[in-house]
Amino acid sequence: MNQSVTYPKLNQFQTVSLIVGIIGVVLLGLGAMLDIEQFFRSYLFGYLFALSIPLGSLVWMMIHHVTGGGWGVAVRRIFESSAMTLPIMALLFIPVILATWGGFGEQGLLYEWSSPEIVEGDPIIAHKQLYMNPQAFLIRAIIYFVIWAGLALLLRSWSLSQDRTGNPALATRMRGLSGVGIVLFVLATTFAMFDWGMSLDPHWFSSMYGVLYMIGDGLITLAFTVTILSMLINHEPLSEYVSTKEIHDLGKLMFGFTVLWAYVSYGQYIIIWSGDVAEFTPWYAHRTQNGWQWVAVTLMGLHFFLPFLVLLSRKIKQNLRTLVPIAIWMIVMRLIDMSWLILPEFHESVAGIHWMDIAAPLGMAGIWCAIFIWILKSRPLLPMNDPNMEALILRGGHH
Amino acid sequence: MATMKAQPAVYGIMGEFDSPEALTKAVHRAHKLGYRKMDAFSPFPIEEINETIGPHDTGVPRLVLIFGLLGAAGGFILQSIAAWIDYPINIGGRALNIIAWPAFIPITFEAGVLSAAFAATFGMIGLNGLPSPYHPVFNVPGFDRASQDAFFLCIEATDPMFGGASGFLRQAGAVRVSVVEH
């Protein structure tokens, strides 16, 4: 592969990401000295946002290994490079673990269930102690990361050895692992979100919570992938092979996931609304008052109706010039969606959003992007020996 | 039917080709020369031909959108009339006005999907002119081979450039050219 090709837009984006990331992280560090409790809240929020894309990339990659097709092979290296950051994400989770273990003097910094005093005075949380305790939380986190990072590393190494050897058995092996991997991924991610997001309100539970997060992951990953693709497509080798068809397929998936997001979000709401049971309603009660209701309305309009109507058009989905602005829009909407899911646990009112709640996601996502692009550029951008490349080679790219 | 326009004497001119490549080439040339009212027939789908002369604006998407929105609105209004006006019923203390809208969304969604699906199915059938028990192209001898091993291009008489169609098809490499009678 021609190593001399450079990607000016990608390099520019990497520089900007790195600068934003460093500013965000420095601010977050300063914030930690001012208000350690707020620091951890913002850190968790930023972390869950930054984790969306590597997790979404991992599952999209596995879905593509199982189902095949030209769209996935065109962006597989983006998925792989993004999923390859999961070991780094594991290291970045250590502060959350420390917070539950009382590593910063105070116990129960982030999660009420990690404070013995609160547990003692609350029979409901006390009842859940077997599951919600710092030891079990740590062991489960290790299991999640072993599953995620293990899948990412294995699939990446097989994919790279496919580049070198062209051994046809590797495609079969990747497909086999992905079949099992998807099941493991869904289990791990569902429980991870129960642990890390849902248990912020230890009284409340919803079996749909994990799904909600995964659908959001899928959507932001497609949006991010389309954005990165637009920075590569005018250069070798993608310019030769990637055509309108692959872009259209990614656009269609984005459209589908926009609808799926609305379906799942509304599904959880209508079940709890209809049941009207005191155990479940407080979660929505928090999120529909003190200004949070306007965030909810904004999400309905701008995370669903607007992209839904725009993406109905085939022409818009086929053209990166029109698809990329929508993709960037969806990334911003995902951040607002995550704010609505996580931040009401920390701030009664929407006006209570702290500046660290903005610095954390920007800082972590910025640094993450810079690392991701560095991994992406280190290897060929198309898995030329994959059987799925045939469709792209036969057609040739003329976008 | 006094308003009916005078029909041309024939339906069109049909050229028969012996390979998909020959047909594709002829379609591209015809399109380049300015022929528009034409149709190709082959035993299997040929994507390139579809891109050149396939229907680009079928009208079905617009129909689906309109009926989808109408269906959704209908579903919502139907429930509103039933539950707020005709037979207001207190369910678990919920409001008897617009505040209770979340309960109506599943039916609204389903009614929208149902209506859109019907519009897509019947709109497609209707706009294709189906059911059509008679079509002139079947008058061409040997046309039944279009579903086996032969490839056809038919230039219709309504095309402004129809006058030169017969000569064009011969020149484009058709192995046989025949007139399509009504």
Your description of this structure?
The complex is a heterodimer of chains A (399) and B (182). Chain A is mostly helical and 399 residues long. Chain A has one domain. Chain A is 76% helix and 0% strand. In chain A, helix 2 (36-67) runs antiparallel to helix 3 and helix 8 runs antiparallel to helix 9 (169-196). The longest helix of chain A has 32 residues, at 36-67. The model of chain A has no long low-confidence stretch (mean pLDDT 91). Chain B has 2 domains: 12-57 and 135-180, no CATH class; 60-127, no CATH class. Chain B has 5 helices and 4 strands, in the order E-H-E-H-H-H-E-H-E. The A-B interface holds A 266, 269-270, 273-274, 276, 312, 314 and B 61, 65, 92, 94, 102-103, 105-106.
Mean pLDDT of chain B: 84
Radius of gyration of chain B: 25 Å
The unreliable regions of chain A are none
Decide which structural class fits the backbone of chain B. Answer: alpha+beta
Average pLDDT figure of chain A: 91
Rounded to the nearest angstrom, the distance between the terminal CA atoms of chain A is 22 Å
Number of strands of chain A: 0
Count up the helices of chain B: 5
3D shape of chain B? rod-shaped
Write a concise synopsis of the structure shown.
Chain A has 399 residues and is mainly alpha-helical. Chain A has helices spanning 8-34, 36-67, 70-83, 86-92, 94-100, 116-121, 123-127, 134-165, 169-196, 209-232, 238-241, 244-275, 281-287, 292-311, 314-318, 320-342, 356-377, 389-395. Chain B has a 4-stranded antiparallel sheet.
